[in-house]
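Quality-control log, excerpt.
Job 1 of 2 completed; input and output follow.
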Amino acid sequence: MATFNRSLRHPTKLLLLLVFSLASLFSCTALEKFEKRELVIEGKERKVTIKAEIATTQAQHEQGLMYRKSLKDGEGMLFVFQSDQILSFWMKNTLVPLSVAYISYDGRILEIYDMQPGNLDPVRSSRSVRYALEVPQGWFGRAGLGVGDRLEIQGL
């Protein structure tokens, strides 16, 4: 024990220990990178394009839009799942208000819900869906989109 304490008194060793500890911490919490695509949603009156990050892996699904300080209208994140299922999203570590659309396997928007920053209450789909699209809160209405409109899902 005395040897360990003596070695930490040396500033270079202490600095190296601190650097390696911080590097280890950051490597464990590294943020996922997302593919970006322009997606088209066909509404009743027009088509709308959105720039979306695509979340396909479990790690990407877990990270989502956490820690983002802003999200512009016309931007969002599409969560892609391998099979239809009841989905549930919450806003842990999410700093901006969002709307989430639950979308069927064929691209039809089935439900849209608003979510508040930091709220840990789950927002569940009432039916099995394949996709979830998160956007700035209220964007669907501002873009003239709603339940029944279709996301073009070719290549997803």
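Job 2 of 2 completed; input and output follow.
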Amino acid sequence: MKHTLAILGPILGIALIADGAPALAGVNGRVDTLERGAYACEMPGDAASRRGVPVPEEGFTITNGSAYAADGKNGTYLRVGDIVTMTSGPRKGSRYALKNERHLKKLAQDGNPTGLRCVRLGSPGT
């Protein structure tokens, strides 16, 4: 039995790595997390006001590691390279393009920007 596990262990490990490889290879990035804190979302303003139009129902808070909270519920997300995908919870299926460590742009189903932007509130590290 020990010999069987010794042989299968490395084989299973290679199979698991190979199974996950296409997901990482296709986006040219590494798995990472977002800065913790509240992210407020808004649509761009018009030429008259030049201020953003708040969309509070789209906001969320990164709580820990790859976890977030929104609408009083919790969920998880996956950041690979510059793409963030909400994988469970109230924003499940939402995708964002990372513009910098504190600024996200929401993507439509086809991958094009929707115009909605979400910005981390507060100073870095808070």
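Post-run check on job 2. The helical segments are 2-25.
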